[in-house]
Amino acid sequence: MKHHRKMHFLIIDDDAIIARVHQELLEEAGHKTTVISSSEEALKQVATINPDCILCDLMMPGIDGLDFFQALQKIEDIKKPKFIIITGKIFEYDKRRALELGVDGYFNKPVNPKTFADDLAEVIDSSMVIQFWGVRGTLPVPGKKTVKYGGNTNCVTLSFAEKEFFIFDAGTGIKELSNFLVKQNKFPLSAKIFITHPHYDHINGLPFFVPLYMQGNEFEIIGTNQGDMSIEQLISGQMDSVYFPITMKELSANVTFRNISEESFDIGELNIQTLFLNHPGKCLGYRVQHEKKS
């Protein structure tokens, strides 16, 4: 367990087996749990239980998960716990609606038992988690000499409390990210792909990013123009049928593009600031901030 703060979880689920699994995983990580199978009963007892976090199924008889959350917000004189939906509904619409209403996290069943407690802790602590999938420039160099730092070209991800998923650059490291996402079955996936600049080592892994070929996934590719060429033209160009057998128009995921320059904008709770860097051509640096974290 990466996070040492011990918490009290209230688990609300009418499936006794699933509730028991979640309870055992959390108690093995050192947390205290209370399990209630009825959302109506949980609403009556929540002030007395006073949990740090509520894990609630979305499709509950009587009061469903989102109705429970909205009713909880109206209760006065109690400390509002973190609220996380855990559900078998995998549709992006349901996740988006839950996050818009203000829930802190949205997990799909079945959860990953190896990472469940840590994943919850990241949501509760509003952590920004950065992972490096490729760090080299110019050419990918796999092999024993690059085991320590990785032999793939640029790709870095930032995840924020299960709410936002950002991908920075799409060099060959994005294929390693693709393999990880497929293995973890983290779909449907909604993500922003930020391109610093379109030099080949920053974009040449994109055609091999498997989630682009899966229906239900949504990606917005964000970057700056180069002269009169938009970010869409720059990215699509390398997948012209002369160079690659599948074009951008044939991808199954919903892919959109956004041209940006030096500016500041918000995505959910995160603020993104951009700055042109001293590099051949137009190249953007990105700074992501949330409260006092950056």
Cα-to-Cα separation, first versus last residue: 24 Å
DSSP strand (E) fraction? 25-35%
Determine Rg (CA atoms, Å): 21 Å
The helicity comes to 10-25%
Q: SSE order, as H and E?
A: EHEHEHEHEHEEEHEEHEEEE
What is the SS-derived class?
alpha/beta
Q: Got a strand count?
A: 14
- What is the number of helical segments per DSSP (H or I, 4+ residues)? 7
Strands of the largest sheet, in order across it?
A: 6-7-8-9-10-11
Largest sheet: 6 strands, mixed
Show the helix and strand layout.
Elements: E1 8-12, H1 16-28, E2 32-36, H2 39-49, E3 53-56, H3 65-73, E4 82-87, H4 92-101, E5 105-108, H5 116-124, E6 128-134, E7 155-160, E8 164-168, H6 173-184, E9 190-194, E10 218-223, H7 231-237, E11 254-259, E12 264-267, E13 270-276, E14 284-289
Parallel strand pairs: 1-2, 1-3, 3-4, 4-5, 8-9, 9-10, 10-11
Antiparallel strand pairs: 6-7, 7-8, 12-13, 13-14
Task: Provide a brief overview of the structure.
The protein has 294 residues and is α/β, with parallel strands linked by helices. The protein has helices at 16-28, 39-49, 65-73, 92-101, 116-124, 173-184, 231-237; strands at residues 8-12, 32-36, 53-56, 82-87, 105-108, 128-134, 155-160, 164-168, 190-194, 218-223, 254-259, 264-267, 270-276, 284-289. The strands form three sheets. The chain has a six-stranded mixed sheet with strand order 6-7-8-9-10-11.
Which features does this protein show?
294 residues; alpha/beta; 24% helix
Give an account of the 3D structure.
With 294 residues, the chain is of the alpha/beta class. β10, α7 (231-237) and β11 form a beta-alpha-beta unit. 24% of the residues lie in helices and 26% in strands.
